[in-house]
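subagent[fold] <- orchestrator: predict structure for attached chain, return tokens only, no commentary.
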Amino acid sequence: MDVKRDILWRVYLSYILVVLACVAIFSKAVFIQQVQGTHWRSMSDSLHQKLDEIEAERGTIYSEDGQMLSTSIPQFDIYLDFRVAALHEKNGIRFRENVDSLSEALAGLFKDQSAGEYKIMLQKAYDDEDGYFLLKKKISFREYEELRKFPLFRMGRYKSGMIAQEKTIRLNPYQMLAFRTIGLARDSNKVGLEMTYDSLLKGRNGKQLVRTIAGGVSVPVDDTWEIEPETGKDIVSTIDVFIQDVAENALMKMMVKNEAEHGCAIVMETKTGKIKAIANLGRRNNGSYFEDFNYAINPSEPGSTFKLATLMALLEDKKVKLSDMVNLEGGTWRINGQTVYDAEQHGMYDATIKQAFEHSSNVGMAKLAWNYYGNEPNIFLKHLSKMRMDSLTGIDLTGERNSVIFRPGNKLWGPTTLPWMAFGYNLAVTPMQTITLYNAVANNGRMMRPYLVSAVKDEGVLIREFQPKAIDEKICSDQTLQMLRECLEGVCIQGTGAKLFKNNPYRVSGKTGTALVANGKQGYADKIYQSSFAGFFPSENPQYTCIVVIKNKPHAVMHFGADVAGPVFKEIADRLFSTYIKQTMVAGTQQKRIDSSAFSFAGMKQDMALVSAKLKMTYADSSLRTDQWIDMNGKNASVILSKKTFDEHLMPQLKGMGLKDVIYLCENFGLKVNAKGRGKVAAQSIIPGQPIARGQLINVELN
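subagent[fold] -> orchestrator:
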């Protein structure tokens, strides 16, 4: 009995201790939950929740004609959280009923796996209750929109477990077109306009409360913002897509043909200083070319295109007249122990100063500079300052480098510095500085600041506009300008550019340049020549100024400016003349007459009537008073309004309509509109009369 009593006592004691422990644990749990619950929950939130910075959408860079040159588009990484309770309710009936149709839809959209493979993958992740299952990375916004309509996913995040992580990438729709000028917008690697106008383009980042889930993925706690992101401003550049394309293609052809090292081409609007095109191409190791560096704003020895500055100084100081004679010494001249050579051995001796310039004589320019400025080089250098050759142009492009011009007292100034400077050696200037000088001569002496951005907009609303600005109202006298333009045109008639522009349908003024440039430590032994051509057209009323500079490969057989840079200049000029200038010149010689061209527009009747009344345009109206949409057709100054009808199940004819009317009409039909350009509709992606469905996307091109 004593043994039994002893055992029972121990059992009861153990039972009592266990009960007490359970009571203690339960009491502690109640205490933690009810008394300390708020404290521990806040600590949990502090560990898993945080304010995350949300990057603002970056503004778009447009061309002057409204084309997107650089824009931001969203990309999405899609994850699935198979731990959400809604997927496991009623033994997972929601998942099981949708997995087959979801797999079919995924296979149809991405076309990378079969529906069966998708089902196996999804079923395994569901069985494992994977809380961070990666479904797809880097899908487009269009694919994301489709994905949201798929079975299961259309039920929303909290029932499907679908988590979309959005990222913004920068896209250049025209790829390499003006790539270096437009620039990159990738973290710290920004150049071009993306860098110069970064403060406007980047907007203001927002802040949102997010929760960190498995795998380190952050999801918003709710749909509210602590600080809402502010979209960046859009900028409108002066770049013309057509001119840019012409310049790049012309430059590319010559670069490939001559296997050149690098080159650039700039087109400037003469009256305003707007940069309409700026192409930069450099040769890569595999022999292809890419916009790798902005050569247009980096200095190099200009060669004979600099002779315009020398001649301007001489004429402005009235040291010479164009009819004065200079001995070209057959193309060689010794001075202070060094020899000046003309690039082309012409064998000329006595020549007028105009002839010396037209035939690009280094000897002629060097002798004139030495004879008239040898004892007073600072007078010549003051002229270069007046021409802004020793200062930045001020173009709105980060990275423009200073020119290199030596002065007396500098350790690199020597007895031959001045005569060599006269024909573009012993100094370095940028192509942008050279074209700015030539443009001033074309623009009656008014030197314009080159610029690349004409406006800043906020969601289409103009908030700032940049107007043309003169750096100097008059760089020299009208008499000097007249003689300079006479010489520049002479180059293209009987000088080094005569062969290039023989029988040209319009007059060109310009200057060739051929400079032997150093190749690092190897000096001039590799015979690397830089070919250039700078000028403007048409000579009598310049519309565009252009410069082409190409650095050739070592020992290139074809290296003269007229042979390498000249053809690029001419191709650009020919295309611009035939596209933009020829019609204007012809129209200017004709008397004003009634426009006989036919036209067709479409839109809301009340808008058409209002515009017609403002323009005092008479018309015949065959539509009914109750008609909302009309066609306006005209020819030989006769205008007729007629009724326009639509069937909401068929694609309407949009040609001739404005964007406002297109969006109003198409969205009423349930269509999504993607518009490109400005003006009236010229083309549409869905053929008129074709059946349409709600939610369908239509692309329209405006003229």
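orchestrator: received. Logging for downstream: Residues 2-35 form the longest helix (34 residues). Confidence is low (pLDDT under 50) at residues 588-597.
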